């Protein structure tokens, strides 16, 4: 046992004395200082057990937390040992980089398995007293309100009076969800089985679902009859007698213990999420957010902040509040947590620590800080790092100051919540020793009696050969080696060098994912590799008894990675093997090395004396398999989840692969589910056909698109596309999943401009420059030409450092980095990797740099490296150009936008318009300082080329006409005009004269040069101009068809105005319809035509809560609600005509609805007030058109005194428009009705 019993006794007595106040001199903190392998986890578990109180154990990483959880479950088999770590697969926090003016949006992905473990931890804290929670430092972040979480929980008891419908509403309030498909029940979901009269529920903290059965006798209220835990995993399948058949099946199972069902008398259901906010609280929070916005805008105005910052903040917050009110959530909702929780400014959030004391009769609890020399600095740094990041976001108008209160606990706030704490480390730091007031219990003797590894200090000159020899010697014995490098690149290079020399090796560092790191460690354990090369992350907590050698490279590089604590921890990795040894490669002995050597010798002397006095024989430990957090979760599920649950998992997988598709096909055949084609045209998420026409006519070429509020308006959003037509079409069909962009498309966009570029990379560069120029409000990230990755070639940072070629995330200010030469930008980092790989294949710079750092003949390697580096820099442009056809190179875009020749240049090109008109479209593109400042289009006679006449077949006449028209009207003149082809000399002279008169400078008119240093630039620029001229010509050809269509729609509107005697041209027409099935799934809908075109973004569905088949009541309610909102300033435009799908009765009901809302129905014959709305209806059978002749303005006569009808004689343009309205309204209502019916059938 070593000195474990004594350590347990000392620590328990210390904490009990403080608890009983027997000795007030004793501090409430204590430190366990135990060497690697001394059994600190064993001591920790026994101290917790003997103190008999809940405990929170903090670990520095997820992996260590998972390993410690596994160990403690073996030491404390009867306790609830739970794991609580961050549930993100990856997480990029929201931030703003001031040096590059770059906003980075939050990106994250939540792992459902880890979230389940977190729920188990909090559930155990509410239900048990013997809880041990192993957590990472993420536990000091906000975790909802424990009181609200408890208040939202529901107690279910057999015999309680309730039914599936009421339970469903309760579960909805607790944020449980009903899956779209009955076979897809997952954690946090529930299903209602009306045939079995049961509800299947899968709480997130359970490994399998439970099922609640109800007894519904005709003469008595419905009650809960039975609660089964780990219930049959297919609750949607009907059975004859609840779960009796399942129980019989389990009784006959050959291994009934593996499938035992537990019938419960009661069950406590906790919410599906930790953050539970009632709707009324959300409304209060929205009001508070708006108030804070108003006050903060006043502060910004007083401080003289720019309008850009104020407008950005106002737009972002208003969008967030709108989303909160509509859906209860928004992007970055955590930044409003103070308002949602109702906390005052500066009050710390509730965290996992508050859950320890949230229940009744809670005892004091114990904090254990594992690897405290790492964990405590993390606790200190969390608050400061979070605040520094958010200060920039608040300063630049991306967040309100209340975002500061979405934060981790400050160190002082954390310690205020701690009663007693035990620090555990092999090398405790000054902070824990100071808090413990020097009460530290030492453990120098291992239960295995192994002494600390011996240490050799060897020169680094011959380290490669020496290291190879040492690794091979141990590999023969079946022992392993860890090599500690200083950088990730060194680790990768050393691993490659060892593999090249026939040594089985691999590397491990923080760029690898958690499963990848776990796999690398497993490979060392199962003899796949003999050596693992890593960096700092291999210090703490690794149980690898196979390792007998730790080799530390650059041990004399004094600093954090080679300080005393780091050296002691790294050497400790060999302390579980009887042949443990450490080699420090260094050319001098630093102070940290000296202290490490002295401390190790002191420990070895004590351990050797103990073994001699007791006759103990050192024995290597067996160790445990390295497991990641995901391994731990799967292991736990397999152990606890019963066979029924396992069978269900298989059944769900089969349903996804086979049954899901088959089931959907059956429903489609039966008419119960809309087919995909019908769903696409239901219009709810569509947009104006005007935009659809623009997109339909786009070329499928690379380019840049600009969404605008109207033609010629300010840009709302600028983007690039590999194929313009496909990319812009995705916006219209809703495939672009970004909520802010979708909101922009629905509410503001009415026009689209575009530029065609020769390559995708040209589009990338042009997008960056246009975004920087316009700064559109919906471009989240204000990109410029330095916001993309580049290849950088730099001189060494010092005389000893080597110059290098590397990937740079952006182009830095040349004044700050004058020694760096950039190539790019590149569209993706992968493109850079491809070029750098080719560079390494040809010149081998990385291998040479490795030899300079670790080889024996460093001077010769350095000289060779410098020679090859110069060759590589000269070859780099060619490699990039060769890669440019893939759209990834940087040189091509430099020619178009960054060349000095494009400082002040106009590009002029012409293309013929298809058709018989003999027209051409010419474009003049203004390039100023490498930025496309403006574009001008002109339609002229094409000349002989377009008419197919005999002649030279050029556009000389058209070019001349364009030059005269353009330079005679604009003021912004260039220094050079690049022409697609030559023009008449007289025209050219006149243009030069005009430009010189306006600028006083001589202007050059030229065609693209075919040779010389500027030939490539001219060619690239003219390709850009011609591509846009051809695209404009195609648009012009299609524009004629659009003009004919517009005239047709205008004729329909005028015909309808005359037919119904309307006071105004009916530009906006709304049509209403009601659809239902015997009073069920009642759906009322509205479609809108603007200028004769369906505006599907304005279509609406109205929810009707009452049941019945009264269409008149439904129409009256819907019309009343619509115009009531308009009366209250809801922002709805007033229609020029309201059409009803129906006859006289429906029209009468609509008129009453108008009256209810305080409006009037317009009188036929031209009478009516300014506050009246024209009404008409179109019957389906006789195609009769009824129009309202009674009423008046507000407060007019009785609304049902109209009656005369107009018969729709003939297919006049106006009647055709009404029919199109009526049919579209009916189709939309029917589609929504079918969707509601499908939803009900799936529920049943």
TrEMBL record:
Quick one: signal sequence residues? Answer: none
- In this chain the Helicase C-terminal domain maps to 463-616
Q: Which residues form the GIY-YIG domain?
A: 700-780
Q: Which InterPro entries match?
A: GIY-YIG_endonuc, GIY-YIG_endonuc_sf, GIY-YIG_UvrC_Cho, Helicase/UvrB_N, Helicase_ATP-bd, Helicase_C-like, P-loop_NTPase, UvrB
Asked whether the UniProt record includes DNA repair among its keywords, one would answer yes
Q: What UniProt keywords apply to this chain's record, in alphabetical order?
A: DNA damage, DNA excision, DNA repair, Excision nuclease
* Highest taxon, organism lineage: Eukaryota
Its protein name is Excinuclease ABC subunit B
The organism encoding this protein is Tetraparma gracilis
Taxonomy, top ranks, is: Eukaryota, Sar, Stramenopiles, Ochrophyta, Bolidophyceae
